[in-house]
Amino acid sequence: MGWEMPKGESVLEGPGVREASFWESIDGKRVKCNLCFRRCVIEPSAYGACGVRYNSNGKLYTLVYGILTAANPDPCLLYTSDAADELDGVDLGCRRII
Question: What is the CA radius of gyration of the chain?
């Protein structure tokens, strides 16, 4: 017995739930997600291949809106004296912007 992704309306109670962008209704029940190259056709009460888009009664929802998934320090900032204070103080060439 493994872990199963939740189904039903309880899926829509999470903190990052919002109606998705980049989708279209196919027949009032199924939806087509146009966010990535897969172009998933998602049945009612089912997830897209990504596992973060859910079809609820013919409307597509994202379950991770506004939730940080990765944070990486900019390696250029390691060479500045006050990197902690100015996270946007370096240009694309790793040069400090005053």
Answer: 20
44 contacts: CB under 8 Å, gap ≥ 6: 29, 30, 55, 56, 57, 58
pTM of the predicted model, to two decimals?
0.69
Q: pLDDT of 73-87, one tens digit each?
A: 656 655 555 555 444
Check whether 35 has a pLDDT greater than 70: yes
Round to whole Å and give the CA distance between 37 and 39. Answer: 6
Greater confidence (79 vs 56) lies with 56
Q: Are strands 59-62 and 18-19 parallel, antiparallel or unpaired?
A: antiparallel
Q: DSSP of 74-92, one letter per residue?
A: -GGGGGSTTTTT-TT-B-T
d(CA 73, CA 94): 13
